[in-house]
Design brief:
By secondary structure, this protein is of the alpha+beta class. It is 40% helix and 29% strand. The protein has 3 helices and 7 strands; from the N terminus they run αβββββαββα. Strand 4 and strand 5 form a beta hairpin. The longest helix has 28 residues.
């Protein structure tokens, strides 16, 4: 039973760290300066995930932008970039960012190579942190023998 709670603990730690990290990065990106950029290409990559037993679709949207007369390349759309099993949302995103189109690129003022197209965070990041906290709390209570 201890192994079960240790696994819960690990999942909880991962959820809390990833959720808070994405949320903090997303909040910080709201105040980043913006510059003009251009979409280089826009496509969907897919792969089969054994873990999920499904196909994962990841939009790939590389772009170029200038900061202080230096060209930079980026590929992040948002702070939470990750693939999902939802091909429709991947198609929407790829359709939104057509190759050759001009876009606003938000870049980290301390590291211009860190950039994204959509600043802010999504509720999914907060939810990931909350679910992680629930797992963490359950694991601690389980390891202490309070719940079984």
């Amino acid at each position: 039973m201890v192994l079960f709670w240790i696994i819960f603990l690990l999942f909880g730690c991962f959820g809390v760290v990833a959720g808070i990290s994405h949320t903090v990065r997303g909040v910080a990106s709201r105040s980043w300066p913006k510059t003009r950029g251009r979409i280089v290409s826009s496509e969907i990559e897919s792969y089969y995930s054994e873990k999920r037993s499904s196909t994962i679709y990841s939009p790939r949207v590389p772009y170029v932008y200038m900061v202080e007369a230096t060209e930079h390349r980026g590929g992040r759309v948002s702070a939470e970039d990750c693939g999902s099993g939802d091909i429709m949302s991947a198609r929407k995103l790829v359709a939104k960012y057509r190759p050759g189109s001009d876009v606003e690129v938000y870049h980290d003022p301390h590291d211009p190579d860190r950039a994204l197209l959509e600043p802010g965070f999504k509720f999914a990041s907060v939810l990931m942190a909350i679910v992680g906290m629930v797992f963490l709390l359950a694991a601690i209570l389980g390891l202490l023998g309070i719940i079984g």
